[in-house]
TrEMBL record:
Top-level division of the source organism's lineage: Eukaryota
Organism: Daphnia pulex
Protein name: Uncharacterized protein
Amino acid sequence: MLKNTSTLASLSRLDGQTMKTLWSFDDKFNGRFVCSDTTIVIANGKNLEVRSLSTGSLLWSLPVPEIDKIGLYGLILTRNMLIFSTSTGVVAVDLNSHQRVWSFEQGGFLSLSKNGVLHIAAVTYEGTDNKIFAFNLQ
């Protein structure tokens, strides 16, 4: 659950049966997040944070200064990669090394097919040159 109050936002995990709060943090979360079985990735200020889903504790973070311009267009979490898109491009980060492994100089909205094809719906402000890119990640 994400709750925005003035400049801070609360990130909380609730028990699905009792609705009891398991953990909660207040910070500059921007509302975009993605979860796996064990982790949650969320934008916090100029960083992407990877947190434990069971405890909420910070596992590692990645500075992403581009978040400030417009925010995130998308986040995708796979077994071994975190893929995110900003107004300036798409970046893939290896979850084990925490290093950027590839990037593409066109931002946009992201989707990943069940066959491992990443689609980027490129965004332009003029609305005259919209494109869709596809990358086979397998």
